[in-house]
From TrEMBL, chain A:
Signal peptide: none annotated. This is ABC transporter ATP-binding protein. It comes from Pseudooceanicola antarcticus. GO terms for biological process: peptide transport; transmembrane transport. Keywords: ATP-binding, Cell membrane, Membrane, Nucleotide-binding, Transport. Residues 22-274 form the ABC transporter domain. Its main location: membrane. It is a peripheral membrane protein. SMART domains: AAA. One of its GO terms (molecular function) is ATP hydrolysis activity. CDD domains: ABC_NikE_OppD_transporters. One of its GO terms (cellular component) is plasma membrane. The lineage of its organism: Bacteria, Pseudomonadati, Pseudomonadota, Alphaproteobacteria, Rhodobacterales. PROSITE patterns: ABC_TRANSPORTER_1, ABC_TRANSPORTER_2. The gene is dppD. It is found in: Cell inner membrane.
UniProtKB/TrEMBL annotation, chain B:
Gene3D superfamilies: P-loop containing nucleotide triphosphate hydrolases. The keyword Nucleotide-binding applies. Belongs to the ABC transporter superfamily. It comes from Pseudooceanicola antarcticus. It comes from the Bacteria. It is a peripheral membrane protein. This is Peptide ABC transporter ATP-binding protein. GO terms for biological process: peptide transport; transmembrane transport. Keywords: ATP-binding, Nucleotide-binding, Transport. PROSITE patterns: ABC_TRANSPORTER_1 (PS00211), ABC_TRANSPORTER_2 (PS50893). GO terms for cellular component: plasma membrane.
Length: 351, 322
């Protein structure tokens, strides 16, 4: 059982390289789009995740951020999507090529996942408690009684009032915010080392979002799991992330520490995103928003050279001719821009 | 002082919930409760609130896409809620709406040419050739072109589709537009384009707009004045500058502090509200916000707070802070 194997080696006994919890290297995920054609939704994505840290993957629709997480979880639609290149090493174990049974052992136990819409991960015809019990009985071989106790503990942990009563509720008997909490309880019930959260607060009202972000931070402090937080909201990124990966059209275009990304972005796309959001308090001068022109290119019709070049104010012949590589610009900070040495990016004053 | 273009007084909308014995009415949703506000000509007013606040219902009621339960709406001298059906159609030339979802609000089987000429035909504007010219100039106004006349909605991106939705609302040259979350479904980099477009149009055409949104950053940027709703009621309103720099109502304060800011470093001053938004079927007595309010006491359960003027048209409905 690889899941057991992954657990069996203490972190200290492994070489330093393997202390990285998750190492994704040159990941490629391809979707068949009918006939003989296909698109590469994730094209050479690499990142590392250390134990206990929060990595935000940020991008717009079509950037490949969600497909990256589905690839990690082995949840790609079987008939159309598949990982076609690269590697995903969990605690040093290559997950690519894991059988369905092996992936089931990884999901839930090693990597938990929460989604934007809780109803996509909660079964409407089973009680919330039973859904948690199923997980812990399967992965941790707990007895029914112990599993029931764990379910109540988990609901309590995520701040659901009267957990001993709520454990017997069906999802529809809960409010939206409570369902979101129940989904988090379920994802964390086997104490996974990694929690993948795919736009977990996007559908929520802002006051409920604030509660959820607080809850996730608190649970991370207590349980120590690493979080991959997938979102399009730069405000949320600034709030939760230690490190940030910015994706555009299937590729990583910039990655670095959260301060590097927000205070000194080197990729024109990253800077463009920052400048295009109206911030509270910043617009009293009634400045016009600096929009990025054009639209995200479809994966079936990507521009030559840099994928961002048609929308980039700094693009030159070089950018239109040659696809840039991801280059290190400083410690832990990488950017996919051929001109990063030549250009100065102007970030809108935030005060 | 000139008369406002739009005057809304004591607007109320309840939705019946059938389901009792023999299909009788079991309960009512108090979607909009005693809402009053004015919009001056040429002004852009933001209407903000979370789900269940009633902001969308207010917009739809003004246009009579929903019939109000009670209250009055006065638009440029016309009592909108009293208009008989035969006058309603011609009146709607004055007031148009832009919907949130550019995917759901355009007929997928119609070409752009038809989508945009329908409202013209309906209101008897222009001859056939004239209408084509008008449609082309509408497309140009929203940043599209004549070469796109014969395309179907699915051939456009989300942002372009929203531009078509805007062009359709502008076709009959309305004075007033309700924009219901017009940029919420769009990608970040496209949102800014559409906001800039709306800003230009408001300026160039002298439009008056009610801008319904939940994104407080967008509203501050775009709107002259803001109305904050919670569970069907207005809790605070005022000029954007006043309301954002000096929010009075505890709900507005919490709402503004809850918005994640794109600046790393954890915020210390955040007010995190406890609990969920109560159901509008059975809203709390007294102040509707009291169940989540950090300042609430027994008094708040008894009194329905009225909007008190704090100067400059800044009003707040809280017995603790006004």
């Amino acid at each position: 059982m690889p899941a057991a194997l992954i657990d069996s080696i203490p972190a200290t006994a492994r070489p330093a390289e393997a202390r990285t919890l998750l190492r994704v290297k040159d990941l490629q995920t391809t979707f068949r789009t009918g006939g003989n054609s296909s698109v590469r939704a994730v094209d050479g994505v690499s990142f590392d995740l250390d134990p206990g840290e929060t990595l935000a993957i940020v991008g717009e629709s079509g950037s490949g951020k969600s497909v990256t997480s589905l690839s990690l979880m082995g949840l790609l639609p079987k008939d159309t999507g598949s990982v076609t290149g690269g590697s995903m090493r969990l605690n040093g174990f290559e997950m690519r090529g894991f059988s369905e049974e092996e992936m089931r052992a990884v999901r839930g136990k090693q990597i938990g996942m929460i989604f934007q819409e809780p109803m996509t991960s909660l079964n409407p015809v089973k009680t919330v408690g039973w859904q948690i019990m199923e997980m812990v009985m399967h992965h941790e071989k707990l007895s029914r009684r112990a599993a029931y106790r764990r379910a109540i503990e988990m609901l309590d942990l995520v701040g659901i009032p009267e957990p001993a009563r709520r454990v017997d509720n069906y999802p529809h008997q809960m409010s939206g915010g409570m369902r979101q909490r129940a989904m988090i309880a379920m994802a964390l019930s086997c104490e996974p080392r990694i929690l993948i959260a795919d736009e977990p607060t996007t559908a929520l009202d802002v006051t409920i979002q604030a509660q959820m972000l607080e809850l996730m931070k608190d649970l991370q402090d207590r349980m120590g799991m690493a979080i991959i937080f997938i979102t399009h909201d730069l405000g949320v990124v600034a709030e939760v992330a230690d490190r940030v990966v910015v994706m555009y059209a299937g590729q990583v275009v910039e990655s670095g520490e959260v301060e590097q990304i927000f205070e000194a972005p080197r990729m024109p796309y990253t800077a463009g995103l920052m400048n295009s959001i109206p911030r509270i308090g910043a617009s009293r001068r009634k400045e016009r928003l600096r929009a990025i022109p054009g639209t995200v290119p479809p994966l079936s019709d990507l521009p030559h050279g840099c994928r961002f070049n048609p929308r980039c104010a700094h693009a030159t012949e070089l950018c239109r001719a040659t696809p840039p590589a991801l280059e290190e610009v400083g410690p832990g900070h990488a950017v996919r821009c051929a001109r990063w040495r030549d250009i100065t990016l102007d970030i809108m004053d935030t005060e | 002082m000139t008369t406002p273009l739009l005057q809304v007084s004591n607007l109320r909308k309840t939705f019946p919930i059938p389901g009792g014995l023999l299909g009788r009415i079991k309960a009512e949703v108090n979607a909009v409760n005693d809402v009053s506000f004015d919009v001056a000509r040429g002004e852009v007013v933001g209407l903000v609130g979370e789900s269940g606040s009633g902001k969308t219902t207010v917009g739809r009621t003004l246009l009579r896409l929903e019939e109000a339960t009670s209250g009055t709406v006065n638009f440029d001298g016309t009592s909108v809620l009293d208009l008989p059906p035969e006058k309603l159609r011609s009146f709607r030339k004055q007031m148009q709406i832009i919907f949130q979802d550019p995917y759901a609000s355009l007929n997928p089987r119609e070409k752009v040419r038809d989508i945009l000429s329908h409202p013209l035909k309906l209101h008897g504007i222009g001859s056939r050739e004239d209408r084509t010219d008008r449609v082309v100039s509408l497309l140009e106004k929203v940043g599209l072109g004549a070469d796109q006349l014969d395309r179907f909605p699915h051939e456009f991106s989300g942002g372009q589709r929203q531009r078509i939705g805007i062009a359709r609302a502008l076709a009959v040259e309305p004075q007033f537009i309700v924009a219901d979350e017009p940029v919420s479904a769009l990608d970040v980099s496209i949102q800014a384009q559409v906001i800039n477009l709306l800003e230009d149009l408001c300026q160039d055409l002298g439009l008056t707009m009610l801008f319904i949104a939940h994104d407080l950053g967008v509203v501050e940027h775009f709107c002259d004045r803001v109305i904050v709703m919670y569970l069907g009621r207005v809790v605070e309103m005022g000029r954007s500058v006043d309301l954002y720099s000096n929010p009075n109502h505890p709900y507005t304060q919490a709402l503004l502090s809850a918005v994640p800011q794109p600046k790393p470093g954890r915020r210390k001053d955040r007010i995190v509200l406890k609990g969920d938004i109560p159901s509008p079927i059975n809203p709390p007595s007294g102040c509707v916000f009291r169940t989540r309010c950090p300042l609430a006491d027994a008094e708040c359960a008894k009194v329905v707070p009225v909007l008190k003027d704090l100067g400059n048209g800044h009003k707040s409905a809280c017995i603790k802070t006004t």
